[in-house]
Design a protein that fits this description.
binds S-adenosylmethionine; 7 strands; 20% strand; globular; 43% helix; Rossmann fold; alpha/beta; 7-stranded mixed beta sheet
């Protein structure tokens, strides 16, 4: 590991970078309908998830939310989404899966302001907050959803403990994310030690690669039009453009993308 990589892997440094990056991104994307910040998901053959015309442009990103959230029936449940980003997943789940309530939380204050203006849906509220210090009493939710965000948290085990704390008995944690190979062992150990039982887990790397392919043209246009030149390579990674470091790492197994359903007893 280079000195720079070692510096970037320090928890507090990583946290500071993500804290700056996402508000910056929200500002740069102003005026665009960028409701999702994930790498997307597509099965082979495509599952043909029915979507309304307004959701169709976001099909591949919605499919990742569908894959994660449909692991349990959310009807009538109180749901928390940690790291809701620009709120596209939260809005789609509330409109299609009928939870009793849905709270979207994110560290990015600009993102939360965007969500409050863009997604006015009955039963859906947004809140600024930290995944590692959830601002809710014990046993507040029936399900917690977390999509492609935990790689940003400096202390992943602490996040898992917080999820277990805010879940009611019998509640579920619906989770998907990626790690590079240098963090496989640490990630696996944290998952194995989580204070919740694993109901199911899946490697979804192939589906995420197809999702990246599906979104490639739009992602490339956004990177070129919205980011300054010196950030194009970082933007290509962030958007998962074919040929980017992240895309190639997923192809070669240097990066793993997985999903889980946990249950707390
Ligand atoms: C790749 S985006 C995914 C957003 C959303 N889940 C989606 O799929 O569109 C990661 C998100 O994690 C949020 N995040 C990073 N660190 C966080 C923290 N400590 N607590 C809460 N959210 C955090 C970022 O602000 C960003 O919105």
């Amino acid at each position: 590991m280079s000195l720079l990589e070692r510096f970037l892997s320090i928890g507090i440094v990583r946290k500071a970078i993500w804290r700056l990056w996402y508000p910056f991104l929200t500002r740069r994307l102003r005026g665009e309908e960028v409701l999702f910040l994930n790498y997307a998901f597509e099965t082979e053959p495509p599952a043909g998830l029915p979507l309304s015309p307004e959701d169709e442009p976001n099909r591949a990103c919605i499919q990742l939310y569908h894959h994660v959230a449909s692991q349990v029936d959310l009807r009538g449940k109180d749901v928390l989404e940690v790291s809701c980003g620009h709120g596209g997943g939260a809005s789609w789940i509330v409109r299609t899966m009928q939870p009793a309530s849905y709270t979207g939380l994110d560290l990015n204050p600009a993102g939360i302001r965007f969500c409050e203006q863009r997604h006015q849906v009955a039963g859906l509220t947004f809140l600024q907050g930290d995944a590692q210090k959830l601002p809710f009493p014990d046993g507040s939710f029936d399900a917690v959803i977390n999509v492609e965000a935990s790689h940003c948290y400096p202390d992943f085990p602490r996040f898992l403990a917080e999820v277990a704390r805010v879940l009611r008995r019998g509640g579920h944690f619906l989770y998907a994310d990626f790690r590079f190979s240098d963090l496989f062992a640490e990630w696996d150990a944290a998952i194995a030690a989580a204070p919740m039982a694993i109901v199911q887990s899946r490697d979804i790397g192939a589906e995420v690669l197809r999702g990246m392919d599906r979104n490639a043209a739009r992602s490339m246009a956004l990177v070129r039009e919205r980011l300054p030149g010196f950030l194009h390579s970082l933007g290509a990674d962030f958007a998962g453009l074919p040929g980017s470091r992240v895309y190639v790492a997923l192809q070669t197994g240097e990066l793993r993308y997985s999903s889980w359903c946990f249950r707390i007893s």
